[in-house]
Structure formats: structure tokens, C-alpha cells
Amino acid sequence: MTDAPLLQVRDLTRRYKLPRQSLLRRAPVLTALEGGAFTLNAGETLGVVGESGSGKSTLARLIMAFERPDEGQVLFRGRDLHSLPAQDLRALRRGFQMVFQDPFGSLNPRRIIGWSIAEPLRASGEGTAIAQRVAEALEQVGLHPAEASKYPHEFSGGQRQRIAIARAIITRPALLVADEAVSALDVSVQAQILNLLMDLQDDLGLGLVFISHDLAVVASICDRVMVLQHGKKLESGPAADVLRSPEHPYTKTLLKAAGARP
Amino acid sequence: MRRLPANFLLGALLVSLVVGIAALSLVWTPHDPQTMSISTKFAPPSAIHWLGTDQLGRDVVAQLMAAARNSMTVALVAVLLGGSVGVALGLLASALGGWIEDGVMRLADLGFAFPALLFAIMLAAVFGPSLTNAVLAISFINIPIFARVTRASANQIWTRDYVTAARAAGRGRFAISRDHILPNIAAAIIVQATIEFAVAILAEAALSYLGLGAQPPASSWGRMLSEAQTLMYLAPQLAIYPGLCIVTAVLGFGLLGDGLRDITDPRLVRAR
Amino acid sequence: MIELAKLSAHFGDATALRDADLVIRQGDRLGIVGESGSGKTMLALCLMGMAPDSARLTGRLSIDGRDMASASERDWQQLRSRKVAMVFQEPMSALNPLRRVGDTVMEPMLLHEGLSRSAARARTLSLFEEVGIPDPEHRLRQFPHEMSGGQRQRVLIALALACNPALLIADEPTTALDANVALRITDLLQRLARERNMALVFISHDLAAVARATQDIVVMYGGDMVERGPTAKVLSAPQHPYTKGLLGARPDPAMAGRDANGKRRRLPTIPGSVPPLHGLPKGCRFSGRCPVELPQCALRRPAFTQTEASRGAACHLLSEGRHD
Question: For the whole model, what pTM was predicted?
């Protein structure tokens, strides 16, 4: 049996209708993403680099099946996520999870973190040994299991991001989408979290889609890099190549802004 | 060491006073509020009748206390009833979105367009005046208010990352509404409920004043005011006492709601 | 021109800023670098007299010879915008959405310098040109939401320059902006400082931006100034263990790709995390996380050791003559 790649994105396009400017003319359309395509295998990391309006967040939402594309497909292990009935999609969700940008907004402030971490388990109906799985997940991200009974506001930004990662890996997913997961963190904390992600990838064989506006960060963790601007792919390739000899002037600007060291 | 805002403290004081007296009236009043004694009508304040007696010789204090009980009960039931339905509708509208959300909000607009008093009069005309109908009318008015506040607050929470994470985990909209949305909008709803309590007290008084609320011999501030109106030149104090009670109760709950809002909102901003 | 001597900000027992020493002269371009809890924001606020009321300040803060450490709000109001001005991080929330940007920029001129409306308008137009806002006549009358993030930041800069201050403090001016916009804003600030012979204090956690815009740099950690010196030297050859750790933790594009065993290279990190305000060590703030820590580091605060002219760090290793 041929193994379908972990994630395959083909021809992905998403448009948004903007509010009408006048009654007579048709509402303008914004093409947030056009023709997005890539393949990701288990254990690989793909970096998606772009700024606001580049379409990277739209790409994340389409991969996570929070929105439907206007054209194209998202194939997770060979299955088209957007043509599945709701129940099947829900069952598949344990296989792919997401880590968000804002460590302060990604956890319910009114619940202890143990509850939040266990949520994916509850949703998929795995009611047994929840406490143990939560403890395991906390240890995997470098936190003490006893912290499960604390509230989010008792933790620092970096620790909250670790908690968010614990929640994302508790169902032992095969794919992780990190949407600007380290952008809101201090440099030294960022390094810790990036190392953690790499460790988890090695331990769990995760495929990782890492979205960021910082080319340097992406380069340090990703095998391949894809640069987006205005919804289109400008260039892509192995990280080392794209960084050593960027083709597009925009990529060069990103590199300069990231402060590539001599 | 928390420093609570002044309006909260004052409101809490007044509310405790009113609610305390209302609760007390369940077990004790200086006299039976309904016992008439024509011979002692219009008695001035004395050791026996602390605020005197009314035109039928009934003890004023006892009536005020019994009326407080009625007022609190009506307000409580009306806010709980109207609030529950309103919150449920708001959550539903927010969770489902699309035309359902639009439809619910248009229904709410309809509800707002309906004058509460007219609705109460209509109910009374059809089913006869009673306390129950007053409660129903006030509940009905509360539904669109809570639906709007709930929907607005809930919509904000739906955009939070932790809700998106719950969706990523595969949780359904009902579970998310219950576990994530509701706990995080509770503060806003409680503030609204407190303020609506004040409104409900006033509404009950107005309806009773018109004779559409608690029917005699049950006591009510509104009806005491209405009766005192005809006796204004004989015994003006009989209008002042129930009026003061209404003011105290409404002011107390209003301040409490205001104070609660001050406590819950800026804290969230400052905590960052 | 502006002098800080042992300036500290206390919150009860905790110290958010400890013994800050600083001299800023006209035309200096200084970068202040640090992570969360480093005290850099507190320092910026102190320079504007906007430290929170609950903070108790000790030490000396003098502006043009006048001690402002215990000055009243009114005294500060005279200095703000005219001597010291600040550019904030979030352009959208720093501008009143209900006022046209031209009016916002003109306000301090009308207020502080008593200019007539036409004079203020003329100066605003020239400011808009100076900060690189195209079509200034038209932009004057626009509202903040009608402009892009980069343009709003330029408006904020124009606002700060309205009364020709001698010192401009830029607090994380590029954080909310896209990469190429951030580059342009950074270059703009640098150019303005040079052309106006104005002092610039550039506070940021973005080392790349600071490297571009400043001549000198101060590195802060846990409320202490741990290292200072010419920007290029400090960033290429750091002397303090924290600075070394910070620079080492930066993701390096040169690290892309896997090593000989097919594994990805890990970033060097500083172990642990910044302790909360009340839990900072009594001696050197960095003790407990320092890879080359000596026994006395946790107990005694290191004095500042000058290693070259206008360069040095506060570290026991340096003061005891041990370089590594």
C-alpha cells in the first residue's frame, strides 16, 4: 500500500466578498489565497513566510478545515477534508492540531489548564485515564504535572505556549500547524519553544507547518520554506537554498528585516 | 487588599436593606398588614404603629414590608425567567450565526418595539389583572434585552483563540457554548441582570399603580401610591413612604449593577 | 543634557529599575534592549515622568540640569513634547480615532507654543513631508483608520516632533509593523535624529532594528543595566553572559538545514525563565540562569566594570579580571 503523504494541498484558493461600496456596483472580491500548493511528509517541517495580508492565516484556517476553500483541496493522509461529512471530519481532527500566536488568548481564562489540555480528549470521546494523559503531556513540554490545577494567568507567556503545545499533542496527532506560535515571545523564550517543537517532532514523528513573518525563525526550524505575498506563492524550496540565494526581491527584504547575521 | 468602588458598596448596602426587610417579612411583621381598623385610621407615627396607619387603619410599616416581599419576588422571577430565555436565545443566535442569528435579532427588535405597559394592559384585558400576569409581562420585556447583550458578548468570545482551539479539538457548538462562551460572558450577564432587577421593581410598581399587578388585599408599593394619590391633602405622608421605598430599592440595585460593571470591566483591562 | 544617576523605581519591596546610570547628550542615538521584565519600559516611562503612581523613585533624574525625580505633574507637562517626546508602539490606539490626524498633530503646537492655527498647519505640513507622508495636504484631513499602519506610525512620529523636542523616545516603534515598513521607519528615525541633531532613545527587543538605528546600546535584565557600549561592538563581541545568551538564542538563517546525522540543530538557550518581580535574586539578577556563575554572584551585586572607553558590563567575572 502506497503511503499517501501526510498533507497535500492543491490549487487552494479562497476569496472573500468585501462590503459593497455602492448599490449599483458589484461587491469587490478579495483573493486571500490563490493556487496554494505543497506536500508535506511525516517528520518534515514546512515554513510558510509572509506578512499581514499574505494569505498565511487563510492557509492555516483552510488546512485546519475551519473554512471551506473556493477551489482546490486539502488532503490529509489522502482524504479530502472539505468533502467529508461533518462526523467524519470531527473524528479525523485528532490527527491534526494547531498552536496559536497569542499565548494570552489561546487558553480559556476561567478553566484550569488541566481542563484545557484535556479538551481534545474529551471531544474525541477518550474518557479514560485523562489525568494521566494530561500529566504525560505536561512532562513532554517541560512542565510539572502538578501545575495542571493552576489557572492560565498564573503562568508566563512562554509557559502558556508550552501549555498550548501540550493541548495540541495530547491526541498524538500526526500534523501540527503552528500559526506565528513564537512571534509574541521574547527571543530567549522563543529559542526554548523552537527547541521544544523540534524535540517533539523527533519524538513523535510530527509533520509541522510553521507559519511566521520572521524568515530567520523559519529557517532555523524548517526543512523547506514557502514565501507568500498577497495570496500568491513567490518562491519555495529547501530552507538553506532560499536563504542563501533568494530569488525574489521581497524575499531579500524579509531577509534583511530579519537581521541576517554576517 | 481590594478597594471596592463606592457605588458598589452603597448599592450593596441599600440592596441588603431592602432584601433583608423583604425576607424578614416572611416570618415577622409588626402587625398583620391586612388587618383593618377603621377606628384607628390615619394615626400618626407612634410606638405601636411606627409610621402610623393608612385610610383603613392598616399598619403602614407592615404593608411596606409585605410590599417589599412582593416586589422582590416579582423582580426575581421576571428577571430569571426573561433572562434565561433571553440568554438561551442569544447563545443560540451567536453559535449558529447566519439567518438564524439575523432572525433572532429581528425578533428581539420586535420585542423592543413593544411597550411594556401596553403589553401588560393587553394581558390584563385578556386574562384579568393579577400578579402572575405582571410577572409574565415584565419577563417578556427582559427577553430581548438579555438576548442582545448575550449575543454581543458571545460573538466576541467566539473569535478568541481558545474557542478556535476547542473547534480544532472537535467540540460541537453546544459544548463550546456551555463550556467556553457562557463562563466568559457571565460577568456581563450578571451586571445586566442586576440592572434589570431595578427596572423590574419600577415596572412592578407602575403596573400595580395602574391596578394591573398585585391585587388587594396583597400589598404593593405601587398600589399604596395609587391609593395615597386620592388622599394627598389628607395624609401626604402615605404617598411619601412607598415612594421612598421604591427609590431606595431601584437606586440600590442600579448602583449595585453599576458597581459590578466597574469591578468586572476595567479589571480585565488592568490585569494585562 | 539628560542625566540619570542611580535612578531606581520601587514597588514596595520589589525594584523594577535598579540604579540606572545614563547620560544622554544631544545627537546621541541610544538603543535600550531587553526582554520582558528587563525594566526598559519603566526606564522609558521615567524619562517622560509617566512612571505609575504606585512607583517610588529614588536617585537622580535631571533634564538640562533640573532635577525631575520628584517633580510634579505640572512641571513634567512643561517638558513633555517640548523637551522630551515619545513615539508609542501601537499606532492605532495612540491616535484618537475621532479626530483628523492633522488636528492631533497640531494640538501640542497650539497648546504649548501658542502658535496660530495657520502657523501650526504650515508646520504640520512640513513635518508630514519630513516624515515621508506623501500628499500631505490631503492626509492632514484624514482619520487614522483611513491610513495604513506605516503611515499612522509616521503620523505618530510627526506628533512627537511637533514641538521640536531635544529627545525622542521610541518605544518598540516597529513591533506592530510589517518587515519592510519597519525597516523604513527605523531608517526614518535615524535620519531625523541626525538631521535635527536630536537625541534618540530606541527601545526594542528587535536587535536587528536597534543595530541599524543606534550608535550605542544598553542591555537590560531584571531591572539592571548589565552591559553597555557601542552598538556594533556589543552585538558582535558581547561581554556579559546574558548578552551572550541573548545573542546566541537568536535564530540564525545560517543554521538552516540538518547536520551530518540528519538532525536539526538546536538553538542555544538560556535555561529557566525571568523570575517575577518579587523573586529576583538579591545579588546579580542573572544568577540562577548564568552558565558561568560564581558563588558570590547570587549574594553580591556586581559593580560596573569599564573594559574600554565608554564600554563595559556589570559582571563579577569582569571585575575580577577573569575574561573568557
Answer: 0.83
